[in-house]
Design a protein that fits this description.
174 residues, alpha/beta, 5-stranded parallel beta sheet, 6 helices, 5 strands, 41% helix, 19% strand
Amino acid sequence: LKPGNTVVEAGCGWGALVGYAAQRFGCDCVGITLSEQQARLAADRYAHLPVEIRLQDYRHVPDQFDRVASVGMFEHVGARNYSAFMRAVQRALKPDGLALRGWPTLHRPECVWVERHIFPGMAVPSLAQVGRGLEGRFVVEDLHNFGADYDPTLMAWHERFQRAWPSLRDRYGD
């Protein structure tokens, strides 16, 4: 990323990636979400930066960008939509642009809890399924497994939850 790059994130959640790209690298960013709550919070949080948050379906983005990102959203589009997702990314990407895709590799039995309580309805794609969606559309320049990096993230979430729990207990109960 460099100053002036245009960046869109499909499934921007609370806007952290587009906020970071705008603040750290001077990019002009658009975050796409279907959640009104996330859109409101992200728009407020990053109002001081060149960040636009849109309440919009990723398949209906008319603009083109230097960079297209999607982190943690692909597992929610469903296997029958992988090709449509890749076509949407391809349309949104300028000819010399780069795309970043991130998705979890949760294929162990202990991940049933995550699928049931955190991300209901998610379907974690295999690398082969992702490859079929990419085929004929993109050149994969780099592939990384960030699985080991996820543990510190989960531990940080757990620590924050434990610290906040006394103020949340009355609202949610044990």
